[in-house]
Amino acid sequence: MSAIIAYGSLMSATELERHGIRNTNPCPVIVSSFRRSFSQEPSRRKGVGNKRGVLTVSPDDQASMNAILVSGISRSALADLDERECGYDRVRVNKESLQPFDGQCDIDQREVFIYVGNPHKLNSKLEPNISYLNLCVEAAGEWGELFRETFRATTFASGVPLVEYAEGAFVV
Q: What SS3 class is residue 91?
């Protein structure tokens, strides 16, 4: 069994269940050495004009972000996620870069992966797809207000954190 780090819409329990992932004891974590941003061209989602960016992460030794560690992922569920995340590469994460967000978390997994955007899909000039941005903020909110606000502080759009970029620009 493997674990994944969910950092966008996949943080939602409903979205995980849609892909057959249940009873996995998801756990909020802080992931160091990654920066999350709306700078990926979408593979499936539509946007309007330049507002079509979806989330991705990129290595950054100076950054950190909150996310959900989802463990107990079977090979078949991982294959399903690979298909869902077709614009991303699944890469192994160093477990030392994971810390519990607020409390206990079993980080002792055999393999931990994160989906990193394919380099040919990166576009730093994109702005977020607003409906997708709302979906991601709602998913973060499922983990509490502090988690949601940390998501907004550690997620970037047009080079600035969402707390600066998106004041009043989205519903959630």
A: strand
Inter-CA distances, 97 with 59, 61, 85, Å: 11, 10, 22
Query: Which range among 12-26, 55-69, 84-98 has the greatest average pLDDT?
Result: 55-69
Neighbours of 97 (CB within 10 A): 17
Complete domains list, the chain, with CATH: 2-163 (3.10.490.10)
pLDDT in tens, 129-157: 888 999 999 999 999 999 999 999 999 99
Residue found by looking up tokens 């992931």 in the block: 31
Q: What are phi and psi of 11, to 5 degrees?
A: -70, -15
Write down the pTM of the prediction.
0.90
